[in-house]
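Let's do one together. I've listed all components of the complex below, 760 residues spread over three lines.
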Amino acid sequence: MTGLDEHLPILQILVPLFGAILTAFTRSGVLAWTIAAIASAIAPFISAGLLMRITETGKPISYVMGSWAAPWGIEYRVDLLNAFVLLLISLIGLVSIPYARKSVATEIDSHKQPWFYTMYLLCLSGLLGIVITGDAFNAFVFLEISSLATYTLIGLGRHRRALLSAYQYLIMGTIGATFYIVGVGLLYLVTGTLNFVDLAARIGPAMQEYPRPILAALAFMTVGISLKLALFPLHVWLPNAYAYAPSFATAFLAGTATKAAIYLLIRIYFSVFAVAIPFRQLPVTEIVLVLSLAAMFIASFAAIFEQNAKRMLAYSSVAQIGYITLGIALANKMGLAGSLVHVFNHAIMKTALFFALGAMAYRTGVLSLPSLSGIGRKMPVTTAAFVVAGLGLIGVPGTAGFISKWYLALGAIEHGWTWLVFLIVLSSLLAVIYVGRFVEIAYFREPSADLAGVREPPPTMLLPLLALAFTTVYLGFDTRLTGGIATRIAEFLLGGFTS
Amino acid sequence: MTGWEVIADHYNYYVTIFLMVAGLYIVIARGNMIKKLVGLGLFQTSVYLLYLSPGRIIGGTAPIIDERFSVYSNPLPHVLMLTAIVVGVATLAVGLALVVRISEEYGTIDEDEIFAKDEDQ
Amino acid sequence: MKLDLILRVGAKLMLPFILIFAPYVHFHGDYGPGGGFQAGVIIAAAFILYAIIFGLDAARHIAPQGLVERLVPLGVLIYAAAGLPAMLTGQGRYLDYGIFGHDFLHAHEWGILIVETGVITTVASTMLAIFYAFADRGRQ
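Okay, and this is what the predicted structure of the assembly comes out as:
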């Protein structure tokens, strides 16, 4: 196996990709699930291997396709930032896959199940590809691979509105991706390169000669990626897409899809354009800050008044993405570290919450909040896990969410904006309301007659949920993986590609 | 250079911008789902033009190394756009498939009518 | 079906030429415009023409739907697997075609030909699969 060591970056993509090809041959849901499970189980080991090698050597790993040298050929370049996000995405894949079996078996017609797993694996390899590649155009291709798979996953939802949501997401997502390549195209016109490292080196000199195309490129890329990561007010596709997708797809996408887009935004802002252009010469801080605050408050309010539990969590996702972009806008060490920590923590917590809802839908078949009244007595473990992850969303000390908000608050203070700390706390109180509303319905109301025979979900669904709920608490105490690495990433991102 | 020469030298960009805005307008303004996809296709086509037109070098030949030629067109944009075209075709195929399914479920492909039908329930 | 004699005879005359034209375009991709994409579409066009003239059931008899749907991933598998030999034998990176021949150009010609074989398989079967999926919708 020593021979394959140097091929780890490409294996990260190839394992799920070959899994997708093999599932497409099968006509049995169980067989397809087995292949998907094997591929999803191998992927985190590869990312962990990459992360360990980088933390040991401190140098990025470069892998060139077909031995074509870097600025011309496609290069996969893994540094601490990629490795961190890769690990997150593949871990979410790993915990999702045991959950998938029962959930998919009930929600998807049996002849569509193999295709469903094909789409899941394609989505996984696309998302991993966005994160691992060092080439701006290749990132677009992977973005579209994952997006096309996502549209299909959403469209397979049982309700007919799933089709409508998938269609609307397709329109919005394609516009976003096209905006992104318009930006890449403008950069290519003035620099003649697509490689991130090479771009970073050439943008500075090109800025003297052609400032306007470069700024236009930055604007196009910002809007395009913001559509993909659902930055307020470009989030309108997200609530419906999450609400009507199959439970498993929602949980997986909530933890991974927007996170890959956030990675791309961070990469573009901090590595390619370096910190100087977006944050010193342009009012990116102000614009993103205002949009993030709007997301944190308006989306949280929307969540409070939402009747459908999945849509409530989807709006909460938009609000939580606001925290992440807030840290990006601050563009200092603690703020950026807070963003990265929250990328990780939010993925864990939101996947747990959607797992819990999926388990409730599996047993009850309903997801409107009033019809879930008294669910806490029928499914105590599931509801307890939901509440733990919900406390994480609020940011209660002792949970992962507290750590993220702590870093963000430190970032705001470092920037000299104490009022921002106040706003962060205030928006967390909105999360108290919508999580509290669920707790009230789940525990303090009499179970309705519809919930008579409801019991805990099967262990394959319960264990991933409990693992994530436990991780939410664990990451609230042990911050070596999240806080420690995120601070190191923030340090080198603010230093550009030089380190 | 006078103002007109600047415009004439960059006419390909004006065509690109026109296609881009026209496509985006169709996507936003039309309620018919097929027309929206047509607009989306137009919008993507503008990107092909954005990449391809500067790749063509006047007097340049196909990029196959030969002693007789010294000026070659840039092949990379063509390769990139070949990929983008495939992506566009795949997007259009998924979009049309979704529209067919929507039409089967709702009996219409007009967005306003679909929203009205969903609110009736 | 009796009235369309001209169409049926015409189609039967054209089909072999269409099917021969496809590999011509496929292999011509080495020297000029052509390749797997175009050839795949031409093959699919031949089957679709057959289905339109002789009926969907006749076409499904020649190219069964299950087979067509499995050819889609087969083509991708050929494409993706073509990159593996160099990587697995330790002689290069993924998608390194140097292993297929003794000198660089020759090896890459072979590598691209294998890739194009994957492309022609997937494109032809995808086109046909889409046609099958939508041709008899709304008639039941």
